[in-house]
Amino acid sequence: MQWGITMAPRTIKAGILPLYLKLYEEITPGGYRQFDGFIGSTKELLVKAGLTLIDPGVVFEKSHVAKAEELFLRENISFIVTLHLCYSPSLLIADFLKKLHLPVIILDTTPDFSFENMQDDYLLKNHGIHGVMDLTSVLRSRGIPFTVVSGHAENPDFTESLTKTARAYAAASLYRNQTIGITGKPFEGMGDFAVDFGRLKQAFGITVKEIPAARLIEEGERVADGDIEASMNEEKSRWDTGRVSPEAYRDSVRTYLALKRIAGKEGLSGYTLNFQFITEGMATPFYACSRLMGEGSGYGGEGDVLTATLGAPLNLLSEAAKFDEFFCA
Length: 329
Hints:
alpha/beta; Rossmann fold; L-fucose Isomerase, Chain A, domain 2; 2 domains; five-stranded parallel beta sheet; four-stranded parallel beta sheet
């Protein structure tokens, strides 16, 4: 998909914690290396789901936890994925998870698919469920949000559930810390999207940036004719524009390019306008908004910032999110 008006999609970073038991390492030094292939194949599934993984290595003692904390904070991860290689005591990482207070995906999976052809070391290699039960109990008691994904990589249901869960967590992350542009003010009296912008900032880190209509006009005056022609030619290869007034079409493309430039400068992931504040010097830029939506931007009508915030995260899930009036659908 095209990601719209600002940049390539924001990288979604997740910290992965492969968990092991120090007792086993003391008995068989380096024993955790037998899980290298298991860890690698699991990481491949997560990367296919669109994640960038931050991996501190196998964790089984407090120094490893300290390393993971430093790395995760530095990389500004959005959530954590745990992978129990065997039983691992929950209190090894409980305080660390509480401190970061990030949502957690707990993978309840094993290297082997079934009990068939069991070898002597089968149970030692496939008892991570004990750690899963321990950890989920502690996370619940400490109020740390988590989701358990259970199954085996050979089962399509597991891979589908893992992909959907990872993408949902990533979408939730994309919702935060956006910048939404607004021209004018929200339509007076429309209560369904009435929200205090300060509350949005406090709760979700969302910034609302004012984009006066005059700025759109000024930016449009700086758009080169060659850029307008190039944009029109690109669109003519996909759409029939022959019945559109050439002058109105050029003006609309000019405003589109102006808004796109402003969005790039301000780092906008969405935009909204109230047509009542577009009074002279330009037509209401519905063409620009529609085209930017086609590129992945969020949009909301009448100064609806809340709806505009949904474009980026929902496009990660569907690649088809758009604003529409019910009577136009």
